[in-house]
């Protein structure tokens, strides 16, 4: 279970008010998407959720408790620019986080512990479609494959909250579509909460269970840095209707396949998320 609360959050850098009065309560297993103009403070919101920035005012609560002061393994992140380590193999990249967590001085595990971790990392690489590239180095991978690796790297730490900062921004449309499917499926399978920043509106409504727009409500032409941005629209109901219509489409497809194949397909269970993504 993971709930997140932004309770009257402000973020200022000196005289520059970036965010003001941000209030938001997220339910467990939400997929929140943050949209808004460039420079408005979207990444700053993510960085506060990672404890890389501290709010100037207000509180962030995770599961009712004040957020940890330092970044912790239960909050993973994937950035637009690949955050993988170039001098490590694909498998080495995925194993690195758990190795440092278990062995902070050497950053290495040995024997059975290492084999168990390797098995888990290989299973995850298979899940993101990179098993046969395990011994390659990141430079030998395409952009989409590097983002799959970055996802595996984050997921091996079993985060309760996964933060995605424009993770598909640098990908071509075909690769982006397959990443949407993968992220949607991983979100369902891992029951985590995802908070994603994007500039792509269709992507926001395709993936989000909730989409919030961040912008300035007021501006002072004489002092543009005087007022900060806040949540100006919350499209929770719209997301629900989009998802419900996709579920309706999935159900219609299920009926069609049943008629065509002559077999009865399972009801609204594991099959539906796969169909919903189409
Ligand atoms: N460490 C910092 N010191 C001073 N100002 C900062 C710092 N970090 C961010 N800012 C300012 O905060 C504002 C919001 O930046 P942020 O990166 O959160 O915007 P964004 O909405 O994510 O932008 P984009 O969509 O272009 O990525 C910007 O004006 C930026 O210059």
TrEMBL record:
<feature type="domain" description="ABC transporter">
    <location>
        <begin position="4"/>
        <end position="241"/>
    </location>
</feature>
<dbReference type="Pfam" id="PF00005">
    <property type="entry name" value="ABC_tran"/>
</dbReference>
<keyword id="KW-1278">Translocase</keyword>
<keyword id="KW-1003">Cell membrane</keyword>
<dbReference type="InterPro" id="IPR050166">
    <property type="entry name" value="ABC_transporter_ATP-bind"/>
</dbReference>
<keyword id="KW-0547">Nucleotide-binding</keyword>
<dbReference type="InterPro" id="IPR017871">
    <property type="entry name" value="ABC_transporter-like_CS"/>
</dbReference>
<keyword id="KW-0472">Membrane</keyword>
<keyword id="KW-0813">Transport</keyword>
<dbReference type="InterPro" id="IPR003593">
    <property type="entry name" value="AAA+_ATPase"/>
</dbReference>
<dbReference type="InterPro" id="IPR027417">
    <property type="entry name" value="P-loop_NTPase"/>
</dbReference>
<comment type="similarity">
    <text>Belongs to the ABC transporter superfamily.</text>
</comment>
<dbReference type="GO" id="GO:0016887">
    <property type="term" value="F:ATP hydrolysis activity"/>
</dbReference>
<protein>
    <submittedName>
        <fullName>ABC transporter related protein</fullName>
    </submittedName>
</protein>
<dbReference type="GO" id="GO:0005524">
    <property type="term" value="F:ATP binding"/>
</dbReference>
<dbReference type="InterPro" id="IPR003439">
    <property type="entry name" value="ABC_transporter-like_ATP-bd"/>
</dbReference>
<keyword id="KW-0067">ATP-binding</keyword>
